[in-house]
Protein backbone atom coordinates (compact mmCIF):
# COMPACT_ATOMS: atom_id res chain seq x y z
CA UNK A 1 0.00 0.00 0.00
CA UNK A 2 1.35 3.41 -0.92
CA UNK A 3 1.07 6.21 1.61
CA UNK A 4 -1.83 8.46 0.66
CA UNK A 5 -3.72 11.42 2.03
CA UNK A 6 -7.09 12.81 1.08
CA UNK A 7 -9.74 15.07 2.59
CA UNK A 8 -13.51 14.72 2.58
CA UNK A 9 -16.26 16.44 4.57
CA UNK A 10 -13.72 18.67 6.30
CA UNK A 11 -11.49 15.89 7.66
CA UNK A 12 -8.13 14.65 6.45
CA UNK A 13 -7.24 10.97 6.24
CA UNK A 14 -3.54 10.08 6.16
CA UNK A 15 -2.79 6.41 5.46
CA UNK A 16 0.43 4.64 6.41
CA UNK A 17 1.57 1.32 4.94
CA UNK A 18 -1.03 -1.01 6.54
CA UNK A 19 -4.52 -1.82 5.32
CA UNK A 20 -7.33 -0.39 7.46
CA UNK A 21 -10.38 -2.44 8.45
CA UNK A 22 -13.31 -1.02 10.41
CA UNK A 23 -15.83 -3.52 11.80
CA UNK A 24 -19.24 -2.22 12.85
CA UNK A 25 -21.00 -4.68 15.18
CA UNK A 26 -24.66 -3.80 14.80
CA UNK A 27 -26.45 -3.33 18.12
CA UNK A 28 -23.38 -3.91 20.27
CA UNK A 29 -24.13 -2.70 23.78
CA UNK A 30 -20.73 -2.69 25.60
CA UNK A 31 -22.00 -5.37 27.99
CA UNK A 32 -21.90 -7.91 25.15
CA UNK A 33 -18.13 -7.93 24.78
CA UNK A 34 -17.61 -7.44 28.52
CA UNK A 35 -19.62 -10.58 29.27
CA UNK A 36 -17.99 -12.54 26.46
CA UNK A 37 -14.49 -11.60 27.66
CA UNK A 38 -15.41 -12.57 31.23
CA UNK A 39 -16.62 -15.94 29.94
CA UNK A 40 -13.31 -16.54 28.16
CA UNK A 41 -14.92 -16.33 24.71
CA UNK A 42 -12.95 -13.40 23.27
CA UNK A 43 -9.25 -14.11 23.95
CA UNK A 44 -8.00 -11.85 21.13
CA UNK A 45 -9.99 -8.85 22.36
CA UNK A 46 -8.99 -9.54 25.97
CA UNK A 47 -5.31 -9.45 25.00
CA UNK A 48 -5.84 -6.32 22.94
CA UNK A 49 -7.46 -4.47 25.85
CA UNK A 50 -4.73 -5.64 28.24
CA UNK A 51 -1.62 -4.85 26.24
CA UNK A 52 -1.79 -4.63 22.45
CA UNK A 53 -4.29 -1.95 21.69
CA UNK A 54 -6.51 0.88 22.86
CA UNK A 55 -10.11 1.15 23.98
CA UNK A 56 -12.12 4.25 24.79
CA UNK A 57 -15.69 5.02 25.86
CA UNK A 58 -17.57 6.08 22.76
CA UNK A 59 -20.95 7.31 21.57
CA UNK A 60 -22.87 6.74 18.39
CA UNK A 61 -24.91 9.32 16.51
CA UNK A 62 -28.53 10.11 17.32
CA UNK A 63 -30.95 8.60 16.52
CA UNK A 64 -29.24 5.41 17.61
CA UNK A 65 -30.27 3.49 14.50
CA UNK A 66 -28.58 1.54 11.70
CA UNK A 67 -28.75 3.80 8.64
CA UNK A 68 -27.85 7.09 10.37
CA UNK A 69 -24.88 5.55 12.15
CA UNK A 70 -23.51 3.50 9.29
CA UNK A 71 -23.56 6.59 7.13
CA UNK A 72 -21.95 8.60 9.93
CA UNK A 73 -19.12 6.07 10.01
CA UNK A 74 -19.00 6.10 6.19
CA UNK A 75 -18.78 9.90 5.95
CA UNK A 76 -16.95 10.70 9.19
CA UNK A 77 -19.71 13.12 10.17
CA UNK A 78 -23.08 13.18 12.03
CA UNK A 79 -26.52 13.15 10.34
CA UNK A 80 -26.69 16.96 10.18
CA UNK A 81 -23.94 16.74 7.56
CA UNK A 82 -24.80 13.58 5.61
CA UNK A 83 -28.58 13.88 5.90
CA UNK A 84 -29.48 10.25 6.70
CA UNK A 85 -31.53 10.68 9.86
CA UNK A 86 -33.36 7.36 9.96
CA UNK A 87 -34.12 4.11 8.22
CA UNK A 88 -37.52 5.62 7.38
CA UNK A 89 -38.76 9.21 6.99
CA UNK A 90 -41.58 11.40 5.80
CA UNK A 91 -40.05 12.78 2.61
CA UNK A 92 -40.50 16.57 2.82
CA UNK A 93 -40.51 16.82 -0.99
CA UNK A 94 -43.31 14.31 -1.61
CA UNK A 95 -45.12 13.98 1.73
CA UNK A 96 -44.78 10.21 1.46
CA UNK A 97 -43.44 7.82 4.09
CA UNK A 98 -40.41 6.14 2.51
CA UNK A 99 -37.42 3.99 3.35
CA UNK A 100 -34.24 6.05 3.42
CA UNK A 101 -32.13 3.67 1.36
CA UNK A 102 -31.79 5.73 -1.80
CA UNK A 103 -28.50 7.63 -2.36
CA UNK A 104 -30.59 10.67 -3.38
CA UNK A 105 -31.07 11.34 0.34
CA UNK A 106 -27.30 11.47 0.97
CA UNK A 107 -25.92 15.02 1.36
CA UNK A 108 -22.23 14.24 1.72
CA UNK A 109 -19.79 11.98 -0.13
CA UNK A 110 -18.42 8.93 1.63
CA UNK A 111 -14.89 8.26 2.79
CA UNK A 112 -14.96 5.25 0.48
CA UNK A 113 -15.62 7.33 -2.64
CA UNK A 114 -12.94 9.85 -1.63
CA UNK A 115 -10.38 7.11 -0.94
CA UNK A 116 -11.06 5.49 -4.31
CA UNK A 117 -10.75 8.87 -6.05
CA UNK A 118 -7.37 9.29 -4.33
CA UNK A 119 -6.18 6.02 -5.84
CA UNK A 120 -6.72 3.68 -2.89
CA UNK A 121 -8.46 0.33 -3.24
CA UNK A 122 -11.66 -0.01 -1.20
CA UNK A 123 -13.93 -2.89 -0.17
CA UNK A 124 -17.26 -2.56 1.63
CA UNK A 125 -19.29 -5.57 2.78
CA UNK A 126 -22.63 -5.15 4.53
CA UNK A 127 -24.84 -7.82 6.04
CA UNK A 128 -28.24 -6.48 4.97
CA UNK A 129 -28.75 -5.27 1.46
CA UNK A 130 -30.69 -2.20 2.66
CA UNK A 131 -27.39 -0.37 3.26
CA UNK A 132 -25.58 -1.34 0.09
CA UNK A 133 -26.88 1.45 -2.18
CA UNK A 134 -25.96 4.16 0.34
CA UNK A 135 -22.53 2.70 1.07
CA UNK A 136 -21.81 2.20 -2.65
CA UNK A 137 -22.59 5.83 -3.58
CA UNK A 138 -19.63 7.21 -5.55
CA UNK A 139 -17.82 3.88 -5.31
CA UNK A 140 -19.65 1.36 -7.49
CA UNK A 141 -22.83 3.42 -7.95
CA UNK A 142 -23.36 7.11 -8.85
CA UNK A 143 -22.90 9.44 -5.89
CA UNK A 144 -21.90 12.87 -4.72
CA UNK A 145 -18.59 14.23 -5.95
CA UNK A 146 -15.95 13.39 -3.29
CA UNK A 147 -14.20 16.64 -4.23
CA UNK A 148 -17.10 18.46 -2.59
CA UNK A 149 -18.68 20.14 -5.61
CA UNK A 150 -22.13 18.99 -4.52
CA UNK A 151 -22.86 17.46 -7.93
CA UNK A 152 -23.57 13.83 -8.72
CA UNK A 153 -20.78 11.94 -10.46
CA UNK A 154 -20.38 8.54 -12.00
CA UNK A 155 -18.79 5.89 -9.75
CA UNK A 156 -15.02 5.54 -9.63
CA UNK A 157 -15.42 1.77 -10.20
CA UNK A 158 -12.23 1.33 -8.21
CA UNK A 159 -13.89 -0.43 -5.32
CA UNK A 160 -16.07 -3.31 -4.17
CA UNK A 161 -19.42 -3.10 -2.39
CA UNK A 162 -21.84 -5.98 -1.84
CA UNK A 163 -24.16 -7.42 0.79
CA UNK A 164 -24.07 -10.86 2.37
CA UNK A 165 -27.84 -11.03 1.92
CA UNK A 166 -27.50 -10.92 -1.88
CA UNK A 167 -23.92 -12.12 -2.29
CA UNK A 168 -25.05 -14.65 -4.90
CA UNK A 169 -26.28 -11.79 -7.11
CA UNK A 170 -23.08 -9.70 -7.04
CA UNK A 171 -21.74 -8.67 -10.45
CA UNK A 172 -18.59 -6.96 -11.61
CA UNK A 173 -20.60 -4.14 -13.14
CA UNK A 174 -22.84 -3.40 -10.16
CA UNK A 175 -20.69 -4.48 -7.19
CA UNK A 176 -17.10 -4.41 -8.43
CA UNK A 177 -16.78 -8.16 -7.83
CA UNK A 178 -18.25 -11.44 -9.00
CA UNK A 179 -18.18 -15.06 -7.81
CA UNK A 180 -18.54 -13.97 -4.18
CA UNK A 181 -19.92 -17.35 -3.15
CA UNK A 182 -16.76 -19.05 -4.39
CA UNK A 183 -14.60 -16.43 -2.64
CA UNK A 184 -16.23 -16.93 0.75
CA UNK A 185 -17.00 -20.66 0.43
CA UNK A 186 -20.10 -20.51 2.64
CA UNK A 187 -23.74 -21.19 1.87
CA UNK A 188 -25.85 -18.10 1.31
CA UNK A 189 -27.06 -17.22 4.81
CA UNK A 190 -30.62 -16.33 5.79
CA UNK A 191 -31.24 -12.67 6.53
CA UNK A 192 -32.41 -13.55 10.05
CA UNK A 193 -29.33 -15.44 11.19
CA UNK A 194 -25.96 -15.12 12.89
CA UNK A 195 -24.42 -16.55 9.73
CA UNK A 196 -25.27 -13.35 7.84
CA UNK A 197 -22.71 -11.48 9.96
CA UNK A 198 -20.22 -14.34 9.79
CA UNK A 199 -20.41 -14.22 6.00
CA UNK A 200 -19.40 -10.53 6.12
CA UNK A 201 -16.37 -11.22 8.32
CA UNK A 202 -15.32 -14.30 6.34
CA UNK A 203 -15.54 -12.23 3.17
CA UNK A 204 -13.37 -9.57 4.78
CA UNK A 205 -10.62 -12.07 5.60
CA UNK A 206 -10.70 -13.52 2.06
CA UNK A 207 -10.64 -10.07 0.47
CA UNK A 208 -7.69 -9.06 2.62
CA UNK A 209 -5.86 -12.23 1.59
CA UNK A 210 -6.61 -12.07 -2.12
CA UNK A 211 -7.25 -8.41 -2.95
CA UNK A 212 -5.43 -6.59 -0.09
CA UNK A 213 -7.66 -3.49 -0.19
CA UNK A 214 -6.22 -0.38 1.39
CA UNK A 215 -9.46 0.36 3.20
CA UNK A 216 -12.25 -2.02 4.17
CA UNK A 217 -15.57 -1.59 5.99
CA UNK A 218 -17.41 -4.63 7.37
CA UNK A 219 -20.84 -3.95 8.87
CA UNK A 220 -22.90 -6.66 10.56
CA UNK A 221 -26.53 -7.24 11.57
CA UNK A 222 -28.11 -6.99 15.04
CA UNK A 223 -30.31 -10.07 14.70
CA UNK A 224 -28.58 -11.78 17.64
CA UNK A 225 -28.66 -8.71 19.90
CA UNK A 226 -32.38 -8.16 19.31
CA UNK A 227 -33.09 -11.67 20.57
CA UNK A 228 -30.35 -12.35 23.13
CA UNK A 229 -29.15 -10.41 26.15
CA UNK A 230 -25.45 -9.94 26.96
CA UNK A 231 -23.88 -12.96 28.61
CA UNK A 232 -26.29 -15.52 27.19
CA UNK A 233 -24.80 -18.55 25.49
CA UNK A 234 -26.01 -17.48 22.05
CA UNK A 235 -24.63 -13.97 22.45
CA UNK A 236 -21.27 -15.27 23.71
CA UNK A 237 -21.08 -17.69 20.77
CA UNK A 238 -21.67 -14.79 18.39
CA UNK A 239 -18.97 -12.63 19.96
CA UNK A 240 -16.54 -15.53 19.98
CA UNK A 241 -17.08 -15.75 16.22
CA UNK A 242 -16.36 -12.04 15.85
CA UNK A 243 -13.22 -12.42 17.96
CA UNK A 244 -11.96 -15.21 15.69
CA UNK A 245 -12.29 -13.20 12.50
CA UNK A 246 -10.91 -10.00 14.05
CA UNK A 247 -7.84 -12.00 15.09
CA UNK A 248 -7.48 -13.26 11.52
CA UNK A 249 -7.57 -9.70 10.15
CA UNK A 250 -5.07 -8.60 12.78
CA UNK A 251 -2.79 -11.53 11.92
CA UNK A 252 -2.72 -10.35 8.31
CA UNK A 253 -1.33 -6.96 9.29
CA UNK A 254 -4.42 -4.77 9.21
CA UNK A 255 -5.14 -1.82 11.45
CA UNK A 256 -8.43 -3.08 12.93
CA UNK A 257 -11.06 -0.88 14.56
CA UNK A 258 -14.14 -2.42 16.18
CA UNK A 259 -17.09 -0.21 17.01
CA UNK A 260 -20.90 -0.31 16.73
CA UNK A 261 -23.76 1.61 15.19
CA UNK A 262 -25.81 1.65 18.41
CA UNK A 263 -26.45 -0.22 21.62
CA UNK A 264 -29.43 -2.41 22.51
CA UNK A 265 -31.84 -2.43 25.47
CA UNK A 266 -34.70 -4.54 26.85
CA UNK A 267 -38.03 -2.79 26.25
CA UNK A 268 -40.52 -5.12 27.83
CA UNK A 269 -42.47 -5.68 31.03
CA UNK A 270 -41.79 -8.38 33.59
CA UNK A 271 -44.25 -10.67 31.82
CA UNK A 272 -42.34 -10.30 28.54
CA UNK A 273 -44.90 -8.08 26.82
CA UNK A 274 -43.52 -5.01 25.02
CA UNK A 275 -43.51 -1.79 27.06
CA UNK A 276 -44.85 0.64 24.45
CA UNK A 277 -46.18 4.17 24.31
CA UNK A 278 -48.43 4.45 21.26
CA UNK A 279 -47.52 8.03 20.58
CA UNK A 280 -49.81 8.76 17.65
CA UNK A 281 -52.81 7.59 19.66
CA UNK A 282 -51.83 9.78 22.61
CA UNK A 283 -51.16 12.89 20.53
CA UNK A 284 -54.42 12.51 18.62
CA UNK A 285 -56.24 12.12 21.91
CA UNK A 286 -54.63 15.33 23.17
CA UNK A 287 -55.84 17.04 20.00
CA UNK A 288 -59.37 15.66 20.41
CA UNK A 289 -59.03 13.37 17.38
CA UNK A 290 -59.65 9.66 16.92
CA UNK A 291 -56.70 7.94 18.53
CA UNK A 292 -56.27 5.13 16.03
CA UNK A 293 -56.95 7.07 12.81
CA UNK A 294 -53.92 8.64 11.16
CA UNK A 295 -55.88 10.45 8.42
CA UNK A 296 -56.33 14.08 9.30
CA UNK A 297 -54.59 13.80 12.65
CA UNK A 298 -50.99 13.77 13.75
CA UNK A 299 -48.51 11.52 12.03
CA UNK A 300 -45.72 9.86 13.98
CA UNK A 301 -42.68 8.68 12.03
CA UNK A 302 -40.65 5.92 13.65
CA UNK A 303 -37.24 6.07 11.94
CA UNK A 304 -36.35 2.54 13.13
CA UNK A 305 -38.82 1.17 10.55
CA UNK A 306 -37.11 -0.88 7.85
CA UNK A 307 -37.80 -3.97 5.71
CA UNK A 308 -36.58 -6.26 8.52
CA UNK A 309 -39.16 -5.76 11.31
CA UNK A 310 -39.40 -9.37 12.51
CA UNK A 311 -37.17 -8.76 15.51
CA UNK A 312 -38.34 -5.28 16.58
CA UNK A 313 -41.82 -4.76 15.11
CA UNK A 314 -40.84 -1.19 14.11
CA UNK A 315 -40.75 -0.26 17.81
CA UNK A 316 -37.81 1.93 18.80
CA UNK A 317 -37.04 4.81 21.14
CA UNK A 318 -37.02 7.80 18.79
CA UNK A 319 -39.95 9.45 17.03
CA UNK A 320 -40.73 12.48 14.92
CA UNK A 321 -44.22 13.97 15.27
CA UNK A 322 -45.89 15.79 12.37
CA UNK A 323 -48.86 17.80 13.67
CA UNK A 324 -51.94 18.80 11.67
CA UNK A 325 -52.37 22.45 10.64
CA UNK A 326 -53.34 24.69 13.53
CA UNK A 327 -52.19 22.31 16.27
CA UNK A 328 -50.56 23.95 19.28
CA UNK A 329 -47.00 22.58 19.36
CA UNK A 330 -46.24 24.04 22.76
CA UNK A 331 -49.35 22.47 24.30
CA UNK A 332 -48.55 19.01 22.90
CA UNK A 333 -44.94 19.32 24.04
CA UNK A 334 -46.02 20.32 27.55
CA UNK A 335 -48.49 17.43 27.75
CA UNK A 336 -45.86 14.85 26.74
CA UNK A 337 -43.08 16.26 28.93
CA UNK A 338 -42.81 14.28 32.12
CA UNK A 339 -44.87 11.40 30.71
CA UNK A 340 -43.61 8.16 32.28
CA UNK A 341 -41.32 6.38 29.82
CA UNK A 342 -40.44 9.55 27.89
CA UNK A 343 -37.10 11.22 28.61
CA UNK A 344 -36.97 13.98 25.98
CA UNK A 345 -39.53 16.07 24.11
CA UNK A 346 -38.17 18.90 21.97
CA UNK A 347 -39.27 21.33 19.35
CA UNK A 348 -37.53 19.82 16.35
CA UNK A 349 -35.44 22.93 15.68
CA UNK A 350 -33.98 22.48 19.18
CA UNK A 351 -33.53 18.73 18.70
CA UNK A 352 -31.72 19.30 15.40
CA UNK A 353 -29.08 21.41 17.18
CA UNK A 354 -28.87 19.17 20.22
CA UNK A 355 -28.49 15.92 18.28
CA UNK A 356 -26.72 17.13 15.08
CA UNK A 357 -29.63 16.20 12.80
CA UNK A 358 -31.11 17.69 9.59
CA UNK A 359 -34.09 19.84 10.62
CA UNK A 360 -35.97 19.65 7.32
CA UNK A 361 -36.44 15.89 7.78
CA UNK A 362 -37.63 15.96 11.40
CA UNK A 363 -41.26 17.13 11.65
CA UNK A 364 -42.59 19.42 14.39
CA UNK A 365 -41.66 17.62 17.61
CA UNK A 366 -38.97 15.07 18.48
CA UNK A 367 -39.59 12.49 21.21
CA UNK A 368 -37.20 10.01 22.85
CA UNK A 369 -38.24 7.28 25.28
CA UNK A 370 -36.18 5.82 28.09
CA UNK A 371 -33.92 2.78 27.98
CA UNK A 372 -36.73 0.37 28.85
CA UNK A 373 -39.62 1.83 26.83
CA UNK A 374 -40.41 1.77 23.12
CA UNK A 375 -42.42 4.20 21.02
CA UNK A 376 -45.13 3.12 18.58
CA UNK A 377 -47.65 4.82 16.32
CA UNK A 378 -51.06 3.18 16.99
CA UNK A 379 -51.65 -0.44 17.87
CA UNK A 380 -53.02 -1.60 14.53
CA UNK A 381 -49.97 -0.25 12.67
CA UNK A 382 -47.58 -2.70 14.36
CA UNK A 383 -47.46 -6.40 13.60
CA UNK A 384 -45.99 -8.00 16.73
CA UNK A 385 -46.90 -11.58 15.84
CA UNK A 386 -43.30 -12.37 14.90
CA UNK A 387 -41.79 -11.23 18.20
CA UNK A 388 -40.66 -14.66 19.42
CA UNK A 389 -38.84 -13.26 22.47
CA UNK A 390 -39.30 -10.20 24.69
CA UNK A 391 -38.66 -6.97 22.80
CA UNK A 392 -35.12 -5.61 22.69
CA UNK A 393 -34.64 -2.47 20.64
CA UNK A 394 -32.89 0.90 20.28
CA UNK A 395 -33.12 4.45 18.95
CA UNK A 396 -32.79 6.73 21.99
CA UNK A 397 -30.13 7.89 24.41
CA UNK A 398 -30.31 4.62 26.33
CA UNK A 399 -28.44 3.00 23.44
CA UNK A 400 -25.86 5.78 23.00
CA UNK A 401 -22.87 3.96 24.54
CA UNK A 402 -20.89 1.74 22.20
CA UNK A 403 -17.47 0.03 22.11
CA UNK A 404 -14.42 1.48 20.35
CA UNK A 405 -11.29 -0.68 20.02
CA UNK A 406 -8.19 -0.39 17.86
CA UNK A 407 -5.32 -2.88 17.68
CA UNK A 408 -2.71 -0.18 18.15
CA UNK A 409 -1.44 1.50 21.33
CA UNK A 410 -2.51 5.12 20.92
CA UNK A 411 -3.26 8.12 23.10
CA UNK A 412 -6.93 8.97 23.39
CA UNK A 413 -8.05 11.33 20.63
CA UNK A 414 -9.02 14.83 21.71
CA UNK A 415 -11.79 17.05 20.45
CA UNK A 416 -13.81 14.22 18.93
CA UNK A 417 -16.71 13.66 21.35
CA UNK A 418 -17.26 15.28 24.75
CA UNK A 419 -20.56 15.35 26.65
CA UNK A 420 -23.72 13.85 25.18
CA UNK A 421 -27.17 15.44 25.55
CA UNK A 422 -27.92 13.11 28.48
CA UNK A 423 -24.78 14.26 30.32
CA UNK A 424 -22.67 11.15 29.63
CA UNK A 425 -19.11 11.70 28.49
CA UNK A 426 -17.11 9.79 25.90
CA UNK A 427 -13.76 10.12 24.15
CA UNK A 428 -14.86 9.34 20.61
CA UNK A 429 -17.80 8.83 18.30
CA UNK A 430 -18.16 5.79 16.07
CA UNK A 431 -17.82 8.12 13.08
CA UNK A 432 -14.24 8.87 14.15
CA UNK A 433 -13.31 5.28 13.28
CA UNK A 434 -11.57 5.82 9.95
CA UNK A 435 -9.89 9.02 11.12
CA UNK A 436 -8.54 7.25 14.23
CA UNK A 437 -7.32 4.29 12.13
CA UNK A 438 -5.55 6.58 9.64
CA UNK A 439 -4.54 10.12 10.65
CA UNK A 440 -4.56 9.63 14.41
CA UNK A 441 -2.71 6.30 14.16
CA UNK A 442 -0.18 7.67 11.65
CA UNK A 443 0.65 10.60 13.92
CA UNK A 444 0.75 8.73 17.22
CA UNK A 445 1.58 5.11 16.46
CA UNK A 446 3.60 3.12 18.97
CA UNK A 447 4.86 -0.05 17.29
CA UNK A 448 3.12 -3.21 18.41
CA UNK A 449 4.53 -6.61 17.54
Description:
With 449 residues, the protein is an alpha/beta fold. It has two domains: 4-264 and 395-444, Alkaline Phosphatase, subunit A (3-Layer(aba) Sandwich); 276-392, 2-Layer Sandwich (Gyrase A, domain 2). The chain contains 15 helices and 26 strands. The strands form nine sheets. It has a seven-stranded mixed sheet with strand order 4-23-13-3-12-8-11, sandwiched between helices. A four-stranded antiparallel sheet has the order 16-17-19-18. A three-stranded mixed sheet has the order 22-5-26, with no helix packed on it. The protein is globular and about 65 Å long.
Broad shape: globular
Structural class: alpha/beta
Roughly how much helix do the residues carry, as a percent range?
25-40%
Largest sheet: 7 strands, mixed
Q: What CATH architecture of the largest domain would you give?
A: 3-Layer(aba) Sandwich
- Low-confidence runs: none
Q: How many structural domains? A: 2
Count the beta strands.
Answer: 26
Distance between the termini: 19 Å
Approximately what portion of the residues adopt beta-strand conformation?
15-25%
Number of helices: 15
Radius of gyration, taken over Cα atoms and rounded to an integer in Å: 21 Å
Instruction: Identify the CATH class of the largest domain.
Output: Alpha Beta
The main sheet orders its strands as: 4-23-13-3-12-8-11
Mean pLDDT: 92
Q: What fold name goes in the CATH topology slot of the largest domain?
A: Alkaline Phosphatase, subunit A
- Please, what is the CATH homologous superfamily of the largest domain? Alkaline Phosphatase, subunit A
Amino acid sequence: MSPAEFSVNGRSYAFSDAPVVVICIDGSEPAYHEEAIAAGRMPWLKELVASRGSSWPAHCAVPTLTNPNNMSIATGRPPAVHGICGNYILDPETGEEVLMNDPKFLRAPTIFAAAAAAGLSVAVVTAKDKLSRLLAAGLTQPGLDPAGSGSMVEPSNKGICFSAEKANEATLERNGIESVMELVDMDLPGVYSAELSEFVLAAGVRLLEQRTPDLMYLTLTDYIQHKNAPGTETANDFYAMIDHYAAELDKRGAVVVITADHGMSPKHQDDGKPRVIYLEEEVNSLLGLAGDTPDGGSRVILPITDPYTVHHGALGSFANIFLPPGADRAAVLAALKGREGITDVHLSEDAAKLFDMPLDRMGHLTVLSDKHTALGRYRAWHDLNNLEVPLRSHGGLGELNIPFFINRVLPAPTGTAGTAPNGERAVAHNYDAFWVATTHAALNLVAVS
